[in-house]
Design brief:
six-stranded antiparallel sheet, alpha+beta
Length: 441
């Protein structure tokens, strides 16, 4: 078990929700890279120590100014004299190195319970990675820079851990949780620029989805605001209900056809809705011009809302704060998240039952348990999409790789590299991919 897994499991065992664990871990990663012996980088030269040497000197008693040197240390980069004093005393009582992982986790849990109960309560109840991340940033870590860019960056780290370790069975997902899922997905791409890893991930999700809107594969050089919105909806598993597009005006047309377009500048959107802009809006009356840009609403409150957008100035993914009924608002795409959540709840189990009836899988309970365990990322989405495409059993694909290729061609899988890299991680997953790939043709 690696360090990430140890920390995830430890915090889960302390009653934190998956989102709470992820939000906290995202902040710890930002502070220390999850290295318990990490000495604040900017203090190494001043103190004349490396991480290893500093830890050894504190443990041996050679260095006696641990509590008063104002240098951040450990998982949470404890810095102030009172907090470092408590940490040192805790380590001595436990008879552990000041850089011991388990000791620091025990101290972290004790500190949260003793001194930050409001933070701990949120981490034990929230279903939002962003909410968890923000409260840790603002109430526990409290760095000098607490601006929106820092919030988004740390929540993005948290979302990465969530995607990697959280349970993926969405049975019972509420409307609010589904909306937040979309927001967390797009916020994880903040900071990406054209050609960056995050940008290429957006394009891979969009271009891997079939059918492609108008048959066009988006290129690295292209504007990609609508592509980013589409990719977030695709990754959330709701593109069937939102539509996908790489052009803003075409996206508006799709929204109108689905009955989810709101032609009202003064509308107050909700998280997960898409905001469309018209840069030629003069601010008088309801704007009815052409749509120029689009993003997803990721926070709402106090007469304002935040929109996360691809292809902002400089070709980056970033955020913008808007006033309700502000200038440049063209309108909103407002998917019926309540109805979508209702349809999605129980969908993996229904998909498994259908595939069993078609004799494509012969152990439905096994795969239901696999979905519930959350150990196979995106398994629920795979099964639901495959069941929607498959009408009868076919000859099994000869290899998992061939099965994955067939599923990509059918528009069931949009992240083939993920499945190629991980099908050996769970018993019988390769056989499942062969069965599904052979039947989806």
């Amino acid at each position: 078990m690696n360090t990430e897994e140890k920390i995830w499991r430890y915090l889960q065992d302390r009653g934190l929700t998956d989102a709470g664990v992820a939000g906290l871990m995202g902040n710890l990663y930002a502070e220390s890279g999850l290295r318990p012996n990490n000495l604040q980088n900017s203090c190494e030269k001043r103190l004349g120590y490396t991480d290893v040497a500093y830890t050894a000197a504190v443990d041996s008693g050679e260095y006696t100014n641990f509590t008063g040197d104002s240098a951040g240390y450990g998982l949470a980069q404890w810095t102030s004299c009172p907090r470092k004093t408590l940490l040192l005393e805790f380590a001595k009582r436990a008879k552990k190195s000041i850089g011991d992982l388990e000791m620091q986790l025990d101290f972290l849990a004790d500190e949260l319970s003793r001194s930050y109960p409001a933070v701990l309560n949120t981490l034990r109840s929230t279903t939002s990675v962003r909410t968890a991340s923000d409260i840790v940033l603002l109430k526990f870590e409290r760095p000098a820079d607490q601006g929106e860019a820092v919030k988004v960056k740390r929540a993005g780290y948290g979302q990465t851990f969530y995607n990697k370790y959280a349970k993926k069975g969405d049975t019972g997902m509420t409307e609010t949780q589904l909306r937040q899922k979309v927001a967390d997905i797009i916020n994880a791409w903040v900071g990406g620029t054209k050609g960056s890893k995050k940008h290429l991930d957006i394009l891979a999700v969009y271009n891997g989805h079939k059918p492609l809107a108008r048959g066009y594969k988006v290129q690295v050089k292209d504007a990609y605001c609508a592509t980013t919105v589409s990719a977030a909806y695709i990754r959330a598993g709701i593109s069937e209900y939102t539509g996908t597009e790489c052009g803003v005006e075409k996206f508006i047309a799709i929204a109108r056809s689905k009955g989810i377009w709101v032609e009202n500048d003064a509308h107050t959107p909700k998280i997960g809705d898409a905001c469309v802009y018209d840069w030629q809006d003069d601010g008088r009356g309801d704007c009815t011009g052409a749509g120029d840009h689009i993003g997803i609403v990721t926070a709402v409150g106090g007469g304002t809302f935040t929109v996360t957008e691809g292809n902002m100035s400089g070709g980056k993914v970033g955020t913008r704060r808007m006033q309700v009924n502000g200038r440049y608002i063209r309108g909103f795409i407002c998917p019926d998240f309540a109805a979508i959540a209702k349809k999605l709840n129980g969908a993996p189990a229904e998909a498994i039952d259908k595939l069993a009836r078609l004799d494509i899988i012969n152990s439905p309970d096994y795969w239901k348990q696999a979905v519930e365990s959350g150990k196979v990322e995106y398994l629920d989405v795979l099964l639901v999409k495959a069941a929607a495409k498959i009408t009868k059993a076919g000859p099994r694909s000869s290899t998992p790789e061939n099965g994955i290729g067939a599923l990509v061609s059918a528009g069931v899988i949009d992240t083939p590299n993920h499945w190629v890299e991980h099908y050996r991680d769970y018993p019988n997953l390769g056989a499942l991919l062969c069965a599904l790939g052979g039947s989806v043709k």
